[in-house]
Amino acid sequence: MVTQYPLEIPLGQGWTQLAELLLAFVLTALVGLERSLRGKGAGLRTQAIVGVSSALFLQVGKYGFFDLVPLLGGDIRIDPSRVAAQVVSGVGFLGAGLIITQHSRVRGLTTAASVWESSAIGMAAGAGLWLLAVVVTALHFVITLGLGVVEDGLLNREPVRIHLDVRYLDGHGLLRELLSRITDAGWSVSRASPRAVPGTENARLILELKGPRETSELVAGLTGTEGVLSVDVVADPETE
């Protein structure tokens, strides 16, 4: 929608605009804090930067061209939605970079969506729609914290059993750390069989695990441990 402004117009740099930027910062920082506390990517700083930047972009679209009014004879038509549309496109590319495909599994979709959401919250705050911005922020916590519990209850998920074949450097105290990471991730260890690999400095750990979660996050967490050489999900492991 194209808006026509008269000659006497505000500069858009008052306390109202500063309050809108501050609101965008607070709300999107809360979203980022939730992501950080859960060990996800795009945490506090990223979400806050996206939210505040989106709010500022929208304010530039609304107020950034008022100095052209006298040059155009006191009558100017601007379309703030153009800037908003470009922000949405740009954040879409940013979110796409957070999505990871590993072992035929897709990770990072919720984090990517949260960046897009932070941009929307920031734009709503920048547009003065503070109530909508606050409500969407509250709904973020309902979605990320509450819907998982509801989903588990409705689907009545049974614990899954998996076998892992972990190869790691021996003599670095990794066995205890690996088992700790597994239990911290919500899995229980049914069987653990550490084995030496003859002729090498490596060790092999065969694990039988039980847990309700997807295996991709567990495998990624173990693979990222310093000293771990490989982590494979196997159907029928050998325990030679």
How would you portray this structure in words?
The protein is of the alpha+beta class. The chain has two domains: 141 residues, no CATH class; 75 residues, Alpha-Beta Plaits (2-Layer Sandwich). Helices cover 52% and strands 20% of the residues. It is built from seven helices and eight strands; from the N terminus they run βααβαββααβαββαβ. Strands 6-7-5-8 form a four-stranded antiparallel beta sheet, covered by helices on one side. Strands 1-2 form a two-stranded antiparallel sheet. Keywords: Cell membrane, Membrane, Transmembrane, Transmembrane helix. Pfam families: MgtC.
Summarize the SSE layout with pairings.
Blueprint: E1 3-5, H1 15-37, H2 44-63, E2 76-78, H3 80-96, E3 100-102, E4 105-107, H4 109-126, H5 130-155, E5 160-169, H6 174-184, E6 188-196, E7 202-211, H7 215-223, E8 228-234
Antiparallel strand pairs: 1-2, 3-4, 5-7, 5-8, 6-7
Count of domain modules = 2
The average pLDDT value, as a whole number, equals: 80
Q: Roughly how many Å apart are the termini?
A: 71 Å
| Contiguous uncertain segments of 5+ residues | 5-9
Structural Rg: 25 Å
Biggest β-sheet description: 4 strands, antiparallel
Shape: elongated
Task: Note the run of SSEs as H and E.
Answer: EHHEHEEHHEHEEHE
What is the tally of beta strands?
8
* Share of helix, binned: 40-55%
Which class best fits the helix and strand makeup?
alpha+beta
Order of neighbouring strands in the sheet with most strands: 6-7-5-8
Report the β-strand fraction as a percent range: 15-25%
Q: How large is the count of helical segments? A: 7
Subcellular location: Cell membrane
GO cellular component, one term: plasma membrane
Domain MgtC/SapB/SrpB/YhiD N-terminal: 21-151
Keywords: Cell membrane, Membrane, Transmembrane, Transmembrane helix
